[in-house]
Amino acid sequence: MQIVDNKALVFETAAPEKVTSIISRSKVVDTDKVVVAWGLNEVRALAGLGYKDTPSPILRDYKWPGKFTPFDHQKTTASFFTLYDKAFCFSEAGTSKTAAAIWAADYLMEIGEVRRVLVLCPLSIMKAVWQQDLFTFAMHRSCGIAHGSPKQRANVVRSNAEFVVINFDGLGTVEDEVIQGGFDLVIVDEATVYKNTSTVRWKTLNRVMKHIQRLWMMTGTPVAQSPLDAYGLARLVNPENAPRTIMQFKDSVMFRVSQFTWVVKPTATETVHKLLQPAIRFEKKDCLDLPPVVHMERHAPLTLQQEQYYNLLKSKMVIKAAGETVTALNAAAGLQKLLQIAGGAVYSDDGETIEFDVSNRINVVIEAIEQTNNKVLVFVPFTHTIRLLLEAITKHGIPAAVIDGKVSMDERTRLVDAFQKQANPRVLIIQPQAAAHGLTLTAADTVVWYAPVPSVETYLQANARIDRPGQKNNMTVVHISGSDVEQRLYKLLRSNLSNHRALIDLYMQEMG
User: Fold this and answer.
1) Domain tally for the chain?
2) Angle value at C-alpha 429, between 423 and 435, nearest 5 degrees
3) Do residues 80 and 206 both lie within one domain?
4) Residue 177 domain-assigned (yes or no)
5) In whole angstroms, what is the distance from residue 187 CA to residue 219 CA?
């Protein structure tokens, strides 16, 4: 397909008359060539005829606002979104599909097709990703975070915010307000939560979408566990072509070999591919303009119990700091206590362990793992939390193993060899102090930090376990935080600031 003078598209087709009969601003110029005006309605019609590579006029007309120049794959993704009212983006985590969706929505706002956008996403990325990315890539648009009590959420939905970001379960509390809120587009990030049509989440979104024209669903792992995962997504985006019941779909992708045993059919991948359309996908390895390592932030709110102890300890530290000179030593000790509470277990002066509910953080770790099809390293600084996390991950059906100071050298060697060469374990939970040097773990392309460490050397060496010769993929480092001190510490670590003055400054910021 060729663009002529930024006004028309020229392309070859075996049925030129069919194209001209459907698209008014077009004409046959040869026995197998057609010229079509390069307008949004025309390219949408071409996409409907099966010409999926048709470029949108967003590539000609849009100024791509923001602090960064878009990558080529982001422009392609944004172009794709503008062609369809309902569509999928299955690009891998770390390919910056959030920015592409924001630019596409902003373009549709510019031309008057969209007034308001509702973003559905996990609680962990409402502010850390969506609010931040909207400020970065579309700072001229207003953003509201619908979180808190039902009344607070409803007030945000009723506001004049052009983008409203809400978590999945929050939608049910403001369903009526959303339906009446003038939204023209719903963007779903981490869309696999809607794979099951029997859930309250799915039914709520399905009701909402009867009143909203556009739906873009994004996930890097649409069928992570089974081809059946595709059914709920297809019923939302492509309901006309989806079987009416889950059993009909199951029969199309699986063989029943006994009462309780089903086997995936050889044709399942093709069946799922046809059903999950229209769709676009980029893998990190295909995005040559991506940096080799992408950093992502995820927020895991402290539970009420954690907040109480965190604030209590902080108030005691403020009183103590007022009566003494703050040194790097006592600053590090105080920060470590706060990090322990945020991580889930604090050690008292007499050596006892006080445990906290860390379900929010564990859920965010599992979210990050499920974002990628490849293997993952999870670095956990606190010994007591490691076994808790291992139990939760394995209970979720993800094969995992642990490397910490208690694992013998022979067992460590066996685990590393299995991780590098075999399908399982898929996840290694690692205490960074025990395995920050020497190990090659390039079977993983994602590092998840359960909590930060106060050592730049440990942080960099731990990340280097995947950034070594033999790594074939672009890499992602995920920072999980639930407190201000953790967010500030991650910034110090990424800036390579490890001197004593930086620790004291961080301590005083937290006390202030």
Assistant:
1) 3
2) 105
3) yes
4) yes
5) 11
Buried b (16+ CB within 10 A) or exposed e, 407-419: beeeeeeebbebb
Q: How far does the chain reach from its first CA to its final CA, in angstroms?
A: 60
- Distance from C-alpha of 257 to C-alpha of 24, rounded to nearest angstrom: 53
pTM for the whole thing? 0.80
- The answer to whether 476 touches 291, Cβ cutoff 8 Å, is no
Same domain, 432 and 403: yes
Q: How many helices (H) and strands (E) does the chain have?
A: 21, 21
10 and 100 share one domain: no
To 10 degrees, what angle do helices 484-494 and 328-343 make? 120
Residue 129 belongs to domain with CATH number: 3.40.50.10810
Q: Which CATH number goes with the domain that contains 484?
A: 3.40.50.300
Q: Flag whether 317 is in a domain.
A: no
Per-residue pLDDT of the chain (512 residues; tens, 9 = 90+): 788 889 999 988 888 888 999 999 999 988 889 999 999 999 999 999 888 789 999 999 999 999 889 999 999 999 999 999 999 999 988 888 999 999 999 999 999 999 999 999 999 899 888 999 999 999 999 999 999 999 999 999 999 999 999 999 999 999 999 999 999 999 999 999 999 999 999 999 999 999 999 999 999 889 878 899 999 999 999 999 999 999 999 999 999 888 888 999 999 999 999 999 999 999 887 776 777 788 999 999 998 888 888 888 777 765 454 445 444 445 566 677 888 888 887 766 666 777 888 889 999 999 999 988 889 999 998 888 898 899 999 999 999 999 998 888 889 889 999 999 999 999 999 998 877 566 889 999 999 999 998 888 888 888 888 887 788 888 899 999 998 889 988 988 887 654 444 544 554 455 44
Number of Cβ atoms within 10 Å of the Cβ of 38: 22
Residue 475 tokens, joined: 């890499």
Buried b (16+ CB within 10 A) or exposed e, 164-186: bbbbbebbbbbeebbbebebbbb
15 and 104 together in one domain = no
Query: What pairing do the DSSP bridges indicate for beta strands 279-280 and 293-299?
Result: unpaired
Query: Closest Cα to residue 156, out of 171, 139, 137, 136?
Result: 171
**Contact predicate 46/59, CB 8 Å:** no
Same structural domain, 148 and 268 = yes
- What residues contact 413, with CB distance under 8 A and at least 6 apart? none
Q: For residues 368 and 425, state if they share a domain.
A: yes
Residue that has been written with the tokens 């945000």 in this structure: 156
Residue with the two structure tokens 């648009």: 141
Backbone CA torsion sign across 295, 301, 316, 386: negative
Residues 236 and 269 reside in one and the same domain: yes
Range of the domain at 80: 68-286
Q: Which amino acid is at 498?
A: S
CA distance 244 to 263: 21
